[in-house]
User: Fold this.
Amino acid sequence: MKPFVLRFWESEFKDVLVPIRTPAGQRAYSEQNVDTVREIKRLLYDEGLTIEGAKKRLSQAQGRVVHGNVVPSPVVGPAPASPTDSRIACTSVAAAAESGRPGLAPNIEAATQAETLRNALRNALRDVRSELLSIRDLLGG
Assistant:
């Protein structure tokens, strides 16, 4: 997972994805945050939901309904006493995969495959669009 994606998700899912800051100011993700990132990724990439749809689904999964001005409470627990606390999973999801933690490496591999497929489909659509524009021009449109 790219750091800029995590930062964007933090801004969009600020009620459920709150990283812990180390004394050096770096982001550290609790085990619960890593699980939340996995769920957000699954909702956005596998199920194809929009960010708003993913927010609703996360709220429903937590047994909370978001209506009007009601703001959902964060799911993250209290910050650890030190950066070495056992709840700190890593400073990034990619680092967790490199550390050999089970379950993360296959997700990284799947994300890489999904990105490759997404790029191939995007290129194919670009080619189809170009051909359609050429046909339109030939027809005098």
In short: The first strand starts at residue 20 and ends at 21. The mean pLDDT is 75.
